[in-house]
Design a protein that fits this description.
Length: about 300
Amino acid sequence: MMALQNSSARYYQRPDVNYVRFDSARSELSGYGGRVKVGKGSKGLWRYSSELNWRSPGLDLNDIGFMQTADIIKLGNSISYFVNQPVGIFRTYSVGLNETSNWDFGLRYLSSSIGTNLYFEFLNQWAISDRWRIRGRLWTHAFCVGSAMLVPAIWSISGYARTDPSARAFFDCTVNFAGSDRQSSRFSSVQPEVTLMPFNTLKFSASISYTSSLDNLQYVGTASVTNETKYILARISQKSLGATFRIDYHLTPEISLQYYGVPLLPWEDILSLRRSPIPMLPTTSRVFHDQPRARR
């Protein structure tokens, strides 16, 4: 029970919340969650929706599913224009706009994001898509034993392209980029994939993925200096190279044999350590003090 309270999904031990508290004698942990969504998802050119999603601090789904974060209230809105008939060089296309805002159960504002979604499929069934998003946030789980920290805005963009998926040979590629103000983090990845179908019952697919990330806000621990708590953060560079292989052979329309393999080669460097004495400062540029460089 102590581990659930201290887990990264909730961090009951944080000093900046007054609606939950860590209790070493607690024998049970209870919570609730839900989702309500209204909107129009079919017929016509316009699609739109509003959604409210909430998970109380004590909610735990790990026995029946995967949950990264509790103690959150999400409100999201989206609208899109969808054309499902040929227009000019396009077989179909859609343009969308979405927005999300988050609060914790103390009604403290956490973050907002806004983004766009673009999708275009050509008459030859080739297609391209693009997603763009920017988000600012109050990082409540920056320090597992400390207060929340306001981090710089994060932007991300992703692109996707594919050839005709009904052909015997099919190619697609996904590219992602993300970064933040004041260079607090960055991320990039690329994943090309090739699919071959020599027979209707046999399909081969193979992909290679490469990712690179730099995180200046990786929490390491705390230290006491002149009776003052210092939060130690690491600047970590991570890279990984992976591949995915898959073979599908259909014996009948209902029965198939499959092989799936994912070899992965990760490596990382801890480039430097830094301390953050005042986590609630409005920007990270005034928070950190670099310490001697370390690598592994």
